[in-house]
Amino acid sequence: MAKAAEQKQNPTVASAETKLDIRDVVNTAITYGEDNRHGGGRRNDVAMFVLRAMCMAVSTVAVTLMVTARETSMTTLYGFEFQLHAVWSLSDSLIYLVVVSSATVLYSLIQLIISGTRLMRKSPVIPTRTQAWFCFVADQIIGYAMVSGGSAALGVTNMNRTGIRHMPLPNFCKSLGFFCDHLAGSIVFALFAFLLLAASSLLDVLHLSRHR
Q1: Where in this chain does the entry annotate a coiled-coil region (predicted)?
Q2: What is the number of domains present in the chain?
Q3: Which of 112, 131, 151, 195 is the most buried (most CB within 10 A)?
C-alpha cells in the first residue's frame, strides 16, 4: 500500500517539478530578451546621438561654405572685358539652401541637446511612441527640404559651369573658381546631411517598432 501511495504521489511531484522547470525557462527567456532589447536600445540611442552630431556639423559646413561664396574677377565676352562680381545672396536658390541648412543645424542642435541629456541620465532618447513619430516626421521633412535645396543650388552651379545652351556665354567658373568651388562643396555637404537624416529616420522606425 505504501509503495502504491508513493507511486501515486510521484507523478504529482514530477508534474510540479516539470511546471517549475518550464516556468524557470520562460522567466529566463523573458529576462534575456529584455536585456537584449535594452542593450540594443542603448546602442540605438548612442547611434542616434552620433548621427545628430554629424548632421549638425555637416550642415554647419554647408552653411559656412555657402555664405563665404563670393568673388570678383574679370572675363572676356565678344572681345570685351567685363568685371564679374558673384555673391551667393544674388540667387534665390542659394538663399533657399542656406535657409534650409540653417534650419537643419538648429533642429540637429536641439535634438543633440535632448539626446545628450537623456543619455547622461541613462534614460531612453526617445521614450514614447508619440515622440518617435514626431522625430520620424521631422527628419523626413527636414531631409526632403535639404534635397530640394541642394537640387536647386545644383542647377545654378551647373549653369555657371556650362553656360546657357544655344547662347555663347562663357564658363564663368573659369574666372570664378573660388565661388564655384564653394557652391559645389556646400551642395555636397547638404546632400550628405540628407543621408544622415535618412539614417536617423531608420532609427526612428526601430524605436517605433520597439514601442508597439
Answers
A1: none
A2: 1
A3: 112
